[in-house]
Write a structure and sequence with these properties.
Number of strands: 5
CATH superfamily: SGNH hydrolase
Order of helices and strands: HEHHHEHHEHHHEHEHH
Strand order of the largest sheet: 2-1-3-4-5
CATH class: Alpha Beta
Strand content: 5-15%
Helix content: 55-70%
Structural class: alpha/beta
Distance between the termini: 109 Å
CATH architecture: 3-Layer(aba) Sandwich
């Protein structure tokens, strides 16, 4: 009889311990922060062949042990992101998120009238088209933040500044437009206190030889690791993470793009510079 009682007590004790372990595991899972990435090809990791495994969002999530979703789409503008925030799966992730990283704005220029923008800036020294484009960006971005807040009023929104991947005359023209856009991001943060936290990617990713893929647009392996470090440092400042040195679980591999696809843009910049000299003489 006593033996039976002891066996029963042992079984009950085992069940209690097992329940405790399962409950602790469930709480541990619930305690993990949820990190998501929204935006364009920079957030997607388009400069890498293994973008899903090695983009900066994945590095940040792996480093801090976050749950993670990447809903960035290559080619997206601010208007596209607004539409994306109507997608049921994206809305689900936004509602779950504790931290949302956003990379958006570059395609507002690239998919707009880039040829005219470069002509105006390089030849005429006119930045009015760039400012008009940024005005549209600012309006869209305000709607993006408000839409995110309607789903999730508490998530920390990290907004990245835009970097300049170009050199030469095109790089100089890019910088004019990028400065205007980054100033607008800072202005938005000042005018809407607490709405976003700025991650200054522009000052981190600027080595044209090493930080960018051969396409001359997207971050390379090194560029993604630098962006990850910038995000991790900001999260540590906010008390949302402790590590600032990226943990690389899978090393990235840069895409390979033949120079024949990238040379025309530089040639166009040189031609515009030559036209600007003539324009200065005959204007």
């Amino acid at each position: 009889m006593k033996t039976a009682i002891k066996k029963t007590a042992a079984v009950i004790l085992c069940l209690i311990m097992l329940t405790g372990i399962m409950t602790a595991g469930a709480f541990a899972s619930e305690d993990k922060l949820f990190y998501m990435v929204l935006g364009d090809s920079i957030g997607y990791g388009s400069g890498l062949r293994n973008s899903r495994q090695a983009c900066y969002g994945k590095i940040v999530a792996d480093t801090n042990g976050y749950d993670y979703a990447n809903d960035a789409i290559p080619g997206h503008t601010t208007q596209n992101l607004l539409d994306r925030l109507e997608n049921e799966e994206v809305i689900k992730h936004v509602k779950q998120a504790d931290i949302i990283s956003i990379s958006i704005g570059g395609n507002n220029f690239l998919l707009g009238n880039m040829a005219k923008l470069l002509f105006d800036v390089i030849v005429k020294g006119d930045d009015s088209l760039a400012r008009e484009t940024v005005d549209g960006f600012y309006k869209d971005f305000d709607e993006i933040v408000k839409k995110i807040r309607s789903y999730n009023p508490d998530a920390v929104i990290l907004m990245q500044t835009l970097y300049n991947p170009q050199t030469g005359y095109v790089g100089e023209a890019y910088q004019v437009a990028i400065d205007i856009l980054n100033e607008a991001i800072v202005r938005y943060a000042q005018e809407n206190e607490g709405a976003i936290v700025i991650v200054d990617v522009a000052t981190r990713v600027k080595d044209s030889e090493k930080d960018f893929a051969q396409d001359g647009i997207h971050p390379s392996v090194q560029g993604n690791e630098k962006i990850a470090r910038a995000v991790l440092e900001k999260l540590a400042e906010l008390g949302l993470g402790e590590k600032t040195e990226p943990v690389i679980t899978e090393k990235g591999a840069d895409i390979s793009v033949p120079s024949v696809f990238t040379a025309p843009l530089k040639l166009y910049g040189n031609v515009l510079h030559f036209i600007s000299l003539l324009y200065g003489v005959f204007a």
